[in-house]
Amino acid sequence: MEFSESLEFGHADRKKIYEHVERHGAVDPDAVQGHLGIDPSGFRHHVAILKRDGRLDEVDGKLRVTIDAGAEEEYVSADLEFHIRPARQEDLSGIVGAIRQVAEERTYIEAESVADEIDHEETLLRHNELESRMFFVATVDDEVVGWVHLHAPELEKLSHTAELTVGVLEGYRGHGIGSHLLARGLEWAGSNDFEKVYQSVPSTNEEAIEFLEENDWKTEAVREDHYKLGGRYVDEVMMAVEL
Question: CA-to-CA distance for 61 and 58, rounded, in angstroms?
């Protein structure tokens, strides 16, 4: 299922099942059936239809929202082998940890708010009538060492735009991981009909600004004294790239 598809279910119970799974990320089918109080035969029928229509998958015994985001890719750089793949619910704690570490090092305000949100919701990927949220991760030995995140409100006037954050743990920089993550995120955004991707960073995060400029991002605006960091005011640099 692509994020650009409209959400229509044809039956109220089918919609309830999808919304419960979407809200919780990965759920045992029996737990969903019991929570919603749908009779077992009807529940199995609706789940079968949701699977047929590409709305839900069952992986490792749990129902999950189906998201068409491509396959895992393997890269080798110097003495490092890493993989980039669509994130799954089980990556939540690894992603939160990586974002918090990078945000603390580089004063990445927008990324820090993303970590707070997914940690609070305990759900990684979202696709509902209000918003869409997608993550890709970079892993080394199955551990999350970087991420790219895209978030889009399901509002008609903003449906062509998505917000992006991207980061790599300090010990794994210099191997092209960040560039590969950014490219994967933008490729996904383009395939889902987004026209512009944007993000904002403090002006003190010179490394992030330089990285984005090297990848053809442009500064659209600067909001003076927007942040207050360590007792002093810092400008917000608003950047974007057209797809």
Answer: 6
